């Protein structure tokens, strides 16, 4: 999320037209058509941060600037050439790194939260904890994961480390409560 993404079409020697058909989870069908004879691109129902990139020395491409969750979906490219039509389809999945926080609750137990991530983060404790993580899902596809440290044995520890695993990155935070 927030980064740019570039999707390329297969390159054919002589291209007459490139058509992108975009179906996202939110919104209607977006169509971008670029004709090489006029060097013009026609847009139908597409957001402003989506652009068709066409240069003769490179494969035609679609650039999405500052990708948002609503742009997750299917992106189909069709290249028309004298050799025929060639289609490539991508499924764009948007990763949202969670916002992390580590604090102490009223009972003096460490609490780790990975807020509004997509997909949900996985939380582990060191030393090992006997607690279960709680998840809260939101309508936009993000999930908040919360875990309270609970020692598995009678010996208490002064320091706990929350280890967060997510496709967008891994983080460790430690706290003494």
TrEMBL record:
It is found in: Membrane. GO terms for molecular function: signaling receptor activity. It comes from the Eukaryota. Keywords: Disulfide bond, Glycoprotein, Membrane, Transmembrane, Transmembrane helix. It holds the Pfam family V-set. It is a single-pass membrane protein. GO terms for cellular component: external side of plasma membrane. GO terms for biological process: regulation of neuroinflammatory response. Gene3D superfamilies: Immunoglobulins. Residues 1-93 form the Ig-like domain. InterPro entries: CD200R, Ig-like_dom, Ig-like_dom_sf, Ig-like_fold, Ig_V-set. Belongs to the CD200R family. This is MOR1B protein. It comes from Notiomystis cincta.
